[in-house]
Design goal:
The chain is mostly beta strands and 802 residues long. It has two helices and 56 strands. The strands form 13 sheets. Strands 42, 43, 44, 45, 46, 47 and 48 form a seven-stranded mixed beta sheet that branches. It has a six-stranded antiparallel beta sheet with strand order 3-2-5-10-7-8, with no helix packed on it. β2 and β3 form a beta hairpin. The two termini are 79 Å apart.
Length: 802
């Protein structure tokens, strides 16, 4: 910094006589005083250009007057010079360039003052730019002046350093270089930062550069963003003197590693019906709770989700439904913070498998005291192979009770050994009496009852005194023929009364199990009628219903096929629950095995019959009508929609529509010559159509909308004229507005193009206007508006032209 003086080299250019004698500087027309015409004075200040780039604090100019022109107040007009670094006499009047940069006014005459000094401001920016040559100029006689000497005294200082960065965007926790290119190598710098509400000193005493690592803690200043803008300040010192401060902007980003904490996902058993305290299939739920989730560096948690096993929740807790499957279930909790960053944690639970008790074998027969089979034995044996789920606290018990078939209630239950033989009856099982035996298999949670029958001892024929007979057993029933053997009747069988079978007493587990041999499918008990009754269809084999309760009556019957000379065996299930009346069938061919189609059934009145199968695809009348009339939702290329019907359309999901967006209905019709018409109606009422002929779709066209009022213009027309685009295409216009300020709004219906004087009127206020046509537009022109009213809306009604 300093204060320097610079003495100018002077000359002038006379527009009549050319360059004058070096040593003076003049402007103006001096012919009145024996000089030449308009003059351009030039001043060159050697050494002034060394102040280029400096801060110019002030400039003082001192001029020495000569006796020239009138002794009066004059104005010197300053201009930039087209040539810098000296007076270029080859330029002539062209030394002066551009517009005037400033003026000085004073008594510029030696008789008035030997010298005058001024402190103008207009020199500063040109000196700082490195200019050292200036001009004065005037063409008038009244401003003719001559200077014999000109001196500049300049107070200046070095500029503060402008810092720069090696990168404008920097990730927090990573380094950036801050450059401080001082104009003087002796200068030193203090670097500071400001980011959000945080600030601090980066370094002091820096000469040319320094590396800075923005701390990750600055992320606290932007809790809802991943990047923010800050400022680095550079204070420039010469010794202990502050020369100035300049700054540079910096963008700081939050590292990808800065994510929220997902916390801890804990699991607990809920609604435990097993009593084990464990997760058991079908006997409990899981409750997942997320705790301890938190944001990072100032962020906050904005959303939670917990998912797993087909369940989900959008808060910090999830209670599942009943755990219906065994095995591991992994739950994932995800949190999102105010920066949009996510974090997850998981928890896995193990669900123990549980199935209801089952029986593979259950045989009951007469025997002696040692368990040896005896047709007339007075004991009976129970051989059973049962299974159960051996979960904590669960046990299996098997009992048997019996009674005479003629009695109404069973006796006391007796424990039966699993996977073994248990002899019961105590020798009191009469050989001439039929007994009912009820075997019950139970665990802690469920039970299964298996009824069995002990027939009498086996005899060829037996008669009862009170009229009754039996074959293969002892006669017990009065007025009955009781047959213990399998019976085959070669001829016809006519039954005048009712019939009852014992299928209810036979359970089926493998629903496709048959014993086919030769042409007689009835040579095995597996082919006879039985029942399906279970609360868990997953325990069945080859079942058409695979979960939940399933109850049905199973029949197996042959159908002879003459072309193959053998019978096919059909398995039929008449379903009672869950859908009463449904009949499932499968067919077995001895040459080809089971059919490829699996279980099939005809539709019942409780089935949802698809439209493709001739049904409505619905379960109620409203949906059926909708499906019958409307072809459903279509969301593909409309060029491919050539199936007659009506469709719901979201144009955002389709291609080649009348618009890129909007909702509505599409009707597709077809002529006998396979030409198509598509008619699309927006939900707001506007209709478009197009046709398919000559092998291509033609452009969409709008149908005239005869009944809907459409907004054509909005604004505030107080004077002048407003153009109503497409207004000539409507039969009527509705004009709305105010007849005067602070009046109620009024409307008026007018025929389009009714070029007569119209008025909007409210009380004693009015606004006059006129409607004219200029196809295809209309116009509204204000004729008179004495009460500061305005026309603000124009609607079109009954569009009849396109």
């Amino acid at each position: 910094m300093g204060k320097n003086s610079y003495k100018a080299q002077l000359n002038y250019y006379d527009h009549n006589y050319g360059w004058g004698n070096a040593g003076t500087c003049a402007q103006g027309d001096g012919r009145t005083w024996g000089a030449g015409s308009a003059r351009t004075g030039v001043m060159y200040f050697p050494g002034l250009s060394n102040l280029k780039g400096k801060i110019i604090n002030s400039v003082k100019i001192t001029v020495t007057n000569r006796a020239g022109g009138q002794n009066a107040q004059k104005t010197a007009h300053f201009f930039r010079s087209a040539s810098q670094g000296g007076i270029n006499t080859s330029l002539g009047a062209g030394h002066k360039t551009g517009n005037q940069i400033g003026t000085l006014s004073g008594w510029f005459h030696a008789y008035a003052a030997a010298s005058l000094s001024f402190t103008p401001t207009f020199f500063s920016s040109y000196i700082a730019a490195g200019e050292d040559t200036f001009c004065i100029y005037s063409a008038t006689a009244s401003e003719y002046l001559v200077w014999g000497a000109v001196t500049l005294e300049v107070d200046w200082q070095e500029p503060a350093t402008q810092p720069s960065l090696s990168a404008a965007t920097v990730e927090m926790g990573k380094g950036v270089t801050i450059n401080t290119p001082a104009v003087n190598s002796a200068y030193r710098h203090t670097l500071r930062y400001a980011f959000g509400g945080a600030s601090g000193t980066i370094a002091t005493g820096i000469a040319s550069s320094v590396s800075w690592t923005p701390p990750v803690s600055l992320a606290n200043q932007i809790p809802s963003a991943t990047a923010g803008s800050g400022t680095i300040y550079c204070d420039t010192y010469s010794g202990s003197t502050l020369l100035g401060t300049k700054s540079v902007s910096i963008t700081l980003t939050v590292p990808g590693s800065v994510v929220p904490s997902a916390g801890t996902l804990s699991a607990a058993l809920a609604e435990d019906t097993s009593g084990t305290g464990l997760y058991v299939k079908g006997m409990g739920k899981a409750k997942l709770t997320l705790s301890g989730a938190s944001g990072a560096y100032g962020s906050s948690i904005t959303s939670y989700t917990i998912t797993g096993g087909g369940w989900s929740a959008t808060n910090g807790a999830l209670t599942t439904g009943t755990l219906a499957s065994a095995g591991n279930i992994t739950f994932t909790a995800t949190v999102t913070d105010s920066r949009g960053r996510k974090a997850s944690t998981t928890r896995t639970i193990s669900v123990i498998d549980y199935t209801k008790p089952g029986v593979a074998v259950c045989n009951v027969y007469r025997c002696d005291a040692d368990g040896n089979r005896k047709k007339a034995g007075t004991y009976f044996a129970v051989e059973i192979n049962a299974s159960y789920s051996a979960i904590t606290g669960n046990t299996l018990s098997i009992t048997a009770r019996y009674k005479k078939q003629s009695e109404s209630s069973y006796g006391t239950a007796t424990i039966v050994t699993n996977n073994g033989k248990t002899v019961l009856g105590g020798g009191n099982i009469g050989a001439s009496t039929t007994y009912d035996v009820l075997v019950t298999v139970a665990d802690k949670y469920n039970s299964l009852s298996i009824p069995r029958t002990l027939s009498t001892k086996s005899v060829l024929q037996s008669f009862k005194r009170s009229a009754g007979a039996a074959i293969g057993k002892v006669a017990e029933l009065a007025n009955w023929l009781d047959v213990a053997w399998d019976t085959r009747i070669r001829g016809n069988l006519k039954v005048d009364g009712g019939m009852s079978d014992g299928a209810w007493n036979r359970d089926a587990t493998d629903l496709m199990l048959i014993n086919f041999s030769g042409d007689d499918p009835y040579n095995s008990n597996t082919n006879y009628d039985n029942v399906v009754r279970t609360e868990d269809a997953s325990t069945l084999i080859n079942s058409p219903v695979t979960s939940g309760p399933f109850y049905a009556y199973r029949k197996v019957y042959p159908v002879y096929t003459p072309w193959s000379h053998h019978s096919k065996v059909f398995v039929e299930l008449k379903e009672v629950f869950p859908q009463k009346g449904r009949i499932w069938t499968q067919a077995y061919d001895p040459n080809n095995g089971w059919g490829d189609n699996g279980w099939t059934h005809p539709f019942t009145n409780k089935d949802v019959v698809p439209i493709a199968n001739g049904g409505t695809g619905a379960t109620n009348r409203g949906d059926a009508l909708y499906n019958f009339i409307v072809g459903g939702v279509y969301s593909e290329n409309l060029n491919d929609l050539a199936v007659i019907g009506s469709y719901w359309i979201n144009l955002s999901n389709c291609q080649n529509g009348p618009s890129s967006s909007g909702y509505g209905t599409m009707e597709v019709t077809r002529s006998t010559t396979n030409n198509y018409l598509q008619r699309f109606t927006f939900y707001m009422g506007r209709t478009y159509y197009r046709t398919f002929t000559n092998g291509r779709w033609y452009d969409w066209r709008a149908l005239p909308n005869a009944h809907t009022a459409e907004t054509l213009w909005e604004g505030s027309l107080k004077n002048g004229t407003a153009t109503i685009a497409n207004g000539a295409k409507y039969a009527y216009l509705i004009v709305g507005g105010w007849a005067g300020s602070n009046e109620d709004a009024v409307t008026q219906i007018i025929p389009v193009g009714w070029g007569t004087h119209m008025r909007l009127t409210s009380a004693d206020k009015w606004l006059a206007y006129q409607c004219d046509l200029s196809e295809p537009n209309a116009s509204i022109r204000i004729l008179s508006n004495p009460y500061d009213g305005a026309i603000t809306w124009v609607w079109g009604v009954n569009r009849y032209k396109e």
